[in-house]
Amino acid sequence: xxxxxxxxxxxxxxxxxxxxxxxxxxxxxxxxxxxxxxxxxxxxxxxxxxxxxxxxxxxxxxxxxxxxxxxxxxxxxxxxxxxxxxxxxxxxxxxxxxxxxxxxxxxxxxxxxxxxxxxxxxxxxxxxxxxxxxxxxxxxxxxxxxxxxxxxxxxxxxxxxxxxxxxxxxxxxxxxxxxxxxxxxxxx
Length: 188
Fold this sequence. Notes:
With 188 residues, this protein is mostly helical. Helix 2 (12-25) runs antiparallel to helix 3 (29-43). Helices cover 66% and strands 0% of the residues.
């Protein structure tokens, strides 16, 4: 009985992250970013990988500079990669982390497009495509698969032979949270 009650207790950190996400989706990007930064300071660099992955994943959307967005997305991927095969089996968040991989790589691909780095974008897009098998046939999974397809088409159209953006300029500023490169981030 005690074990079941422990499983039913919501994760307070994930709840706080969700509150920040709601603020951001409600239009208060600055407040969401401030809350995320405070929470990041509480969690710390060595905190629970699920918490760090989730927080960094959403923190990236609140950034104004594409390089900062990339840095947060890289933190999210790094935290996700801390799970070893043995650790994944022992952690309640293992499925959540695996379900994040398509979105993590999609967002990194979109970041690299914004920065005019199509080769890196292609690498992460391939990784996103390779990871979609974990996703269900639901709205979230369909959205990630559609965003991957859109970004693949865009890369082929804009950079058919690879390389950076035309004229070496960074790509457009729209991204995973915008209309152009992918869906808004959601909990898997």
